[in-house]
Design goal:
74% of the residues lie in helices and 0% in strands. With 319 residues, the chain is mostly helical. The relative contact order is 0.13.
Length: 319
């Protein structure tokens, strides 16, 4: 991380300058990020986090052997990771990453298992995909269910393929069963802290997204990409913005006049990739697990591409 310190410092100085010279715009950006977190994240994520903390802190929890070993054989990963898979699908970002870290700190899995789990257990939740993306942005609930199914298919195949190829090489990982994190006996307190941390990242990246918009960076990149990728300006801008912060990209997608299949595919890519904001949130919870961040980001990008292709053809032929 030392090589990135200068970049982080420069970025922090730029953000401070914008806060000083564009206070009204930055306050609006922060408010939008706060409202997005409060309206979309807290209602769906907090209850799940409380329940998951209760379950993962239960030392008497026993996973049926046939489920345990089936999960191991399919995904080539420790069977204890099935909790991260199930709750990651049900609740969404960044619960899959948090549960993977929690299981690691209980010494039930090793660093390699965490890396493998991240390739398919870190997903957008059904409430966000169907409610926010499909109903509010695409105005088509059916498209939301198609994106959700496409995302699950993509995550499953990405996990199976990567865990038996790139992530099967153990030289990427350096430690086995080596850490234990201090326990917080209050599941509610632990969940409150986790949800607030997520909110902090959403607000921060909402501000960064608007700073790049003021600089004209997104507009310039969108115009450059239009010469390479046969998509309209709003669609490309949505992809770029969503690659930084997921909810901001979904909001930009509302301006698109493309066919439903194209918009659904773009939305599918954004929610499956998650953006740098989601990756940063996940890394925060994964601190101390010794994972390879580049491999995690690569798996998220592959998930996004697969979901986009599957969604496009499903929507094209079904709706």
């Amino acid at each position: 991380m030392k090589k990135y310190k200068s970049i982080f410092n420069i970025s922090a100085v730029i953000i401070i300058l914008f806060l000083l010279f564009y206070p009204e715009k930055m306050i609006v950006s922060a408010k939008n990020g706060l409202l997005s977190w409060f309206n979309n994240v807290v209602p769906s994520l907090f209850p799940f986090m409380v329940m998951v903390n209760i379950i993962t802190n239960n030392s008497n929890l026993k996973i049926p052997k046939f489920i345990f070993y089936s999960f191991e054989n399919i995904f080539n990963v420790n069977g204890h990771g099935i909790l991260a898979y199930i709750f990651g699908l049900l609740s969404g970002y960044p619960l899959g990453a948090k549960i993977s870290a929690d299981i690691y700190f209980k010494n039930d899995i090793n660093s390699l298992d965490v890396q493998k789990l991240l390739s398919f257990c870190c997903n957008a939740g059904p409430m966000f995909i169907v409610g926010t993306l499909a109903c509010q942005t695409l105005n088509c609930a059916k498209a939301g269910y198609i994106i959700l199914i496409s995302s699950i298919i993509s995550n499953t195949f990405t996990g199976i393929i990567l865990n038996r190829t790139i992530l099967n090489q153990k030289n990427y990982i350096y430690g086995i069963y080596q850490c234990s994190a201090p326990k917080n006996n209050s599941s509610v307190q632990n969940s409150c802290e986790a949800v607030i941390r997520v909110g902090g990242y959403i607000i921060l990246f909402s501000v960064i997204s608007d700073i790049l918009e003021i600089f004209g960076v997104m507009s310039i990149l969108s115009k450059i990409m239009s010469f390479i990728i046969p998509l309209g300006y709003n669609e490309l801008k949505s992809i770029l913005t969503g690659s930084l912060e997921m909810t901001c990209g979904i909001n930009v997608l509302k301006n698109s006049t493309a066919d439903l299949s194209v918009k659904a595919a773009i939305g599918g890519f954004i929610v499956s990739f998650g953006g740098i904001s989601v990756i940063a949130q996940s890394i925060d919870f994964l601190n101390g697990t010794n994972i390879n961040i580049s491999l995690f980001a690569l798996s998220k990008f592959i998930n996004g591409v697969f979901t986009a292709f599957i969604t496009y053809y499903f929507v094209l032929f079904i709706i």
